Amino acid sequence: MIARHCIKVATALAPNIAKASTNSFRRVTLIPGDGIGPEISSSVQKIFEAANAPIEWDPVDVTPVKGDDGIFRIPSKCIELMRINKIGLKGPLATPNWQRTSFA
Q1: Is the distance from CB of 31 to CB of 93 less than 8 angstroms?
Q2: What are the E-state strand segments in the chain?
Q3: Domain boundaries in the chain?
């Protein structure tokens, strides 16, 4: 049932994504996530492919990295791709329990 819903959504979005882009596809940042996230993300990619949605995926890892100042941050590559693509798909993530985590 979920797969059918995803196909309906992907099929409905496909024409809009194509119109919004000057290319024949839209780049989407993919954050697979943790635990079952990568498996779910892979399935979603297959569903969008089956629906012929004009999407090219840019997968990124959002595991926080420790900076020189000792503060953990989201990798700059992820932030950069989200700014460029302006759209992303995120799988389930584990929430870190750190007091000094910065997402800026």
Answers
A1: yes
A2: 26-31, 55-59, 65-66, 72-73, 88-90, 101-102
A3: 2-102
Place of tokens 């099929």: 11
Tokens 């700014």 found at? 83
Does pTM top 0.90 for this prediction? no
Q: State both tokens at 59.
A: 């997968």
Architecture of domain 2-102: 3-Layer(aba) Sandwich (3.40)
Say yes or no to pLDDT of 26 above 90.
yes
pLDDT at residue 28 tops 70: yes
b/e per residue 51-79 (b: at least 16 CB within 10 A): bebbbebbebebeeeeeeeeebbbeeebb
The answer to whether 103 touches 73, Cβ cutoff 8 Å, is yes
